[in-house]
């Protein structure tokens, strides 16, 4: 079983730990550099991206997080976590820092103030090609997603694979799930809907990278 951490500075940590266990991982909370050094993968939860970066700096985790992302540690960011993995942010506060690694432009609070939170159906497409991937590593098909003051992906670089787009409604076609190598990110919160496929996919990705 891969050992997957959840960055536990702020945000909905417990829901992610539970989903990771369901997906076949040993799940641990990560608050210190020593704990970060011991995981095979890391989830960056939703919450507030500016607060999370400040706390990461205070806990002396920001540089270690950047290093591990550069070194190829599988990371999965949801919502604020997606913002943390983005190389570029629109609609952020002046000079907002990130961990980076995903060659994307992410727009914060992209769906607008009126719709603080909403649900939408998605089309997901993803396969883990590495390391003898089996049929169950596929993440294909419809997915019901919950968005909470969510970002969207406005531009993707060449090496970035689009895993999911909104299927219906006014935001139809918007990119809300991406992957680049070992890094993946979703605008939505797969930890709170009871559908474990996205976490199971990440656990397999991290297991394959081990
Ligand atoms: N709007 C938040 C941010 O910019 C993200 C919201 C979330 O993670 N649910 O950090």
Automatic annotation (TrEMBL):
Amino acids binding L-glutamine: 47-49, 108, 148-149
Pathway: Cofactor biosynthesis; pyridoxal 5'-phosphate biosynthesis
Keywords: Glutamine amidotransferase, Hydrolase, Lyase, Pyridoxal phosphate
InterPro entries, per the entry: Class_I_gatase-like, PdxT/SNO, PdxT/SNO_CS
NCBIfam families: PLP_synth_Pdx2
PANTHER family: PYRIDOXAL 5'-PHOSPHATE SYNTHASE SUBUNIT SNO, PYRIDOXAL 5'-PHOSPHATE SYNTHASE SUBUNIT SNO1-RELATED
Protein name per the record: Pyridoxal 5'-phosphate synthase subunit PdxT
Species name: Nocardioides marmoribigeumensis
Lineage, top ranks: Bacteria, Bacillati, Actinomycetota, Actinomycetes, Propionibacteriales
Gene name as annotated: pdxT
